[in-house]
Known about the structure:
Blueprint: H1 5-13, E1 16-27, E2 30-41, E3 45-49, H2 56-64, E4 71-76, E5 79-80, H3 86-91, E6 94-96, H4 109-119, H5 135-146, H6 162-173, E7 180-184, H7 192-203, E8 210-214, H8 218-223, E9 227-232, E10 235-240, H9 242-246, H10 249-255
Parallel strand pairs: 3-8, 3-9, 6-7, 7-8
Antiparallel strand pairs: 1-2, 1-4, 4-5, 9-10
Amino acid sequence: MAEPARTADLSESGAFALELDGVGRQFGALTALSGIHLKVRAGEKRAVLGSNGAGKTTLFNCITGDFPPTSGTIRFFGEDVTRFPAYERIRRGLRRTYQISLLFGGLSVLDNVYLACRGVSRRRFSLLRPGRDDATMHQAERILHAVKLDEVAQRRVAELSHGQQRQLEIALALAGAPRFILFDEPAAGLSPTERRDLVAILRSLPAHIGYVIIEHDLDVALRVSERVTMMHNGRIFKEGTPDEIEGDPEVQEIYLGGGHG
């Protein structure tokens, strides 16, 4: 996961990796998002929080191109990608994980990561088997080490625990030198130990890789983010540092039931 020079320069200059200007999304008469203005700097770690139905996953779908916005503009590292299909955004370094695991259960852990790396490489249509010195295979092995899955590299994905499958999803998102990642509830269903492992993995990501994380577990979200954006009824409700959000009376009243231990 070598750091791309251009991304590193953008991170140092304080440029924005992600800019949303007046983004909205309607499904018929239903307004899922309205007037979203959001800027995330290159290399920044941002959490997006809110109750169910606040519009968080719809926001991700608009950013990735799964459901393009019905209004507004989305820029990725300064480029207008509002009408780009999802694969064009992937080619530019945008990655995403999903709430539901999307893995090849019958293949090994290493093969899953290898295919992800191959899929975003120029050699993705080659039918040649990887050799002993295959660069893509070495990249897959390095990624598995980064997410602490070395010991299960040859196991079938279907045999992994739920927590290990979530770690594997992070590995897939790291394929092909990503510039920015969207994590959709990576801690869902994890045990306390697995959540601690997840926090360690997210904190160990290279500094130049920024991300936005949607997460219901506030202990996880506040520990892995530098800034927090709160959403409510399809709009941005409040922004601040983790400490500011955790101590905000309105946030506690709406989202935490009056307190957070």
